[in-house]
């Protein structure tokens, strides 16, 4: 498994603003959008290209297009904020939702929604979840996608705890993980420290 933590100065700058307790939901959503697009650039740097003949105003030429079909799989509900900014860059991507929530007593994931089609019709799945905390939801999402028949899977998240990264590494050692930061630890309630609180609540003004 390869873990990629962005070293881009703009990501570090925007992540600091995202973490601030004073950042209101509207600005929080804007920052999630911007950081997600930076992470997508890095996570898709190895996508294969295919030829695409075109005509410019001056001459015919052979251009290039993305040579694989991409699917976005946000984990509800926090992952929803990462979908729209990625669709702006990948307008032909498919979007499927997985509903997973963490039981606050066991800290384990519970699946409540799955609308994947009967057969996979994409080549690369990008799992979207802002926080990789215990790793339970991420592992469960990868399990679902592998059972479905997904050929290649990557995880995109904003902030991770070392415990979550290790759990995902143990369960799916081949999986690439793309993050903006890895923080210190989980607290006794399973929240990332220093983290940013509950990403879903902060995006949607609940909690």
Molecular structure report:
- The chain has 207 residues and is an alpha/beta fold.
- Helix 1 (9-19) runs antiparallel to helix 2.
- It has helices spanning 9-19, 25-43, 83-89, 136-148, 162-171, 199-204, and strands at residues 3-5, 49-55, 60-66, 70-76, 94-95, 98-102, 109-114, 124-128, 131-132, 152-156, 159-160, 177-179, 181-182, 185-186, 192-193.
- A hairpin with a 4-residue loop joins strand 2 and strand 3 (60-66).
- It is built from six helices and 15 strands.
- Strands 1, 4, 5, 6, 7, 8, 10 and 12 form an eight-stranded mixed sheet that branches. A three-stranded parallel sheet has the order 9-11-13. A two-stranded antiparallel sheet has the order 2-3.
- Helix content is 32%, strand content 29%.
- The two termini are 35 Å apart.
- The chain has a single domain (3-204), classed as Rossmann fold.
The low-pLDDT segments are none
Q: Please trace the helix and strand order, writing H or E for each element.
A: EHHEEEHEEEEEHEEHEEEEH
CATH class value: Alpha Beta
Gyration radius, in Å: 18 Å
Number of helices: 6
State the distance separating the first and last CA atoms.
Answer: 35 Å
CATH topology name, in short, is: Rossmann fold
Q: Give the overall form.
A: globular
Give average pLDDT, whole number. Answer: 91
Question: How many beta-strand runs?
Answer: 15
Structural class: alpha/beta
Largest sheet: 8 strands, mixed
Helix fraction bin: 25-40%
Q: How many domains? A: 1
CATH architecture: 3-Layer(aba) Sandwich
Beta strand % = 25-35%
């Amino acid at each position: 498994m390869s873990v990629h933590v962005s070293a881009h100065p703009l990501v570090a700058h925007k992540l600091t603003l995202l973490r601030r307790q004073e950042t209101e939901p509207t600005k929080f959503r804007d920052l999630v959008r911007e950081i997600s697009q930076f992470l997508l650039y890095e996570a898709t740097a190895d996508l294969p290209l295919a030829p695409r003949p075109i005509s410019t105003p001056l001459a015919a030429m052979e251009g290039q297009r993305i040579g694989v079909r991409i699917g976005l799989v946000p984990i509800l509900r926090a992952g929803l904020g990462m979908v729209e900014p990625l669709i702006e860059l990948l307008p032909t991507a498919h979007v499927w939702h997985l509903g997973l929530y963490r039981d606050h007593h066991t800290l384990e994931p519970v699946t409540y929604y799955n609308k994947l089609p009967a057969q996979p019709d994409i080549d690369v799945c990008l799992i979207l979840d802002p926080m990789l905390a215990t790793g339970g939801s991420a592992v469960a999402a990868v399990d679902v996608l592998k059972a479905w028949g997904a050929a290649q899977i990557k995880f995109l998240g904003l902030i991770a705890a070392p415990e979550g990264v290790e759990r995902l590494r143990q369960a799916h050692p081949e999986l690439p993980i793309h993050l903006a930061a890895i923080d210190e630890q989980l607290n006794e309630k399973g929240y990332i420290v220093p983290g940013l609180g509950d990403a879903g609540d902060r995006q949607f003004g609940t909690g």
